[in-house]
Specification:
single chain; about 120 residues; alpha+beta; 4-stranded antiparallel β-sheet; 5 helices
């Protein structure tokens, strides 16, 4: 059920979601950041060395702060959002997760990036 719902999301956002991977409830959403990296490299922010990590950080921060969802990624594959729900997850919780990703993607990754940078600067002061 979870995999099928994520596949539907991939179909809805083919330029953002490249692939859904995993087995069982160890699932990953592979994002296609190439288009966004080109635009963001023009900004030239000196302390940012890998735009994929910052873009994924933007996604993870939004999912946590806006929707209360805990996800993660690993530095070797910063384009994969890792999802590891408990075995007792309900369909309604899967629906909430997928709906939250959908709402987040409607905002747009560049807006999420902007919000992420501004949020991190505000956190410093």
């Amino acid at each position: 059920y979870f995999f099928e719902k994520l596949i539907q999301l991939k179909i809805k956002y083919p330029k953002i979601i490249k692939e859904i991977v995993g087995k069982g409830l160890y699932i990953g959403i592979v994002f296609d950041f190439i288009h966004y990296e080109k635009h963001l490299k023009k900004i030239n922010i000196p302390f940012i060395t890998d735009m994929k990590i910052v873009l994924m950080g933007s996604i993870i921060r939004c999912l946590y702060r806006e929707y209360g969802l805990l996800t993660h990624f690993t530095p070797p594959r910063p384009d994969i959002l890792v999802i590891m729900p408990p075995l007792i997850i309900k369909e309604s919780e899967i629906d909430y997760f997928v709906d939250s990703i959908d709402k987040m993607l409607k905002i747009g990754l560049l807006r999420l990036f902007k919000k992420f940078l501004i949020g991190n600067i505000k956190d410093l002061f």
